[in-house]
């Protein structure tokens, strides 16, 4: 009987140890639920709370700090929106990790589970230069080294990254070379392997590549070549001003084309920072489409720009005024409307221009106005 008791006690002990072991192997860490969502392809804009950066890395910050009265109140609207900071070739390797860390800290404000948005613009050469020459071997090594530093600095931060605005320039490489797309595909894999990072490869806009020139098919070409299979999806309208409805339609068409080619389930983000009064890029009638004139009032009849739908994951909401079919498409294929364009800067580059920023806000159909 004593032997039976010992056996029973041993069995009980074994069972307790097994349960404890099972609990230890399945108990989540602080970030595990969100990490699992990211690994499974979940929408980062609904998985995490959005962070809003506050500090000098935002070109709007210092002008806002020195403003007062009505001007400060208008700029407050810009300051309050979560935006995607651009990181690129102008940030040397030696300062990059610190810049990333500062931006993460200024965005998360002590909450390590807040989503941080980035825009990467590191490719050299790019834009028209990419049509004239290929990157040298040294430039390719420098690119990979920079991306590695950036990826290590992001680490397990919840991040949504738009990769390389003006993405269609990858298709104009001399001789049809794939070197630019190959570098983008390598970057997509590198960043997409981070535990809580979602990558959106930039694919132009609804008016670029042009619909009449195989726009959807060409966008799918560049996305597949750029590694979209390893990304959460793609981004649209970074430097153009076409309507959100047109972007959603383009996103749905691209997603369908990718699925047809064996890359299903890809989602989009749409930049809405400059399309409050939308127009196609080729329809612009002002002096410089890259620095398009700003609307003066909400009812301005010129081809001009103003702030569009504020950053949100509620993409099909009635308050955005989208047609019903577009709202349904948005819920199906769009993760969020985001601001990774920067129309308050000269040529979306720099410097900050108060003369642009103020009317961009006050002419927007979505600005709530001052109390």
TrEMBL record:
Gene3D superfamilies reported for this sequence: 1, 4-beta cellobiohydrolase (3.20.20.40)
Entries under Pfam families matching the protein: Glyco_hydro_6
Keyword Hydrolase: yes
Species of the source: Nocardioides fonticola
Protein name, entry field: Glucanase
Signal peptide limits: 1-22
Major enzyme class: hydrolase
Enzyme nomenclature, EC number: 3.2.1.-
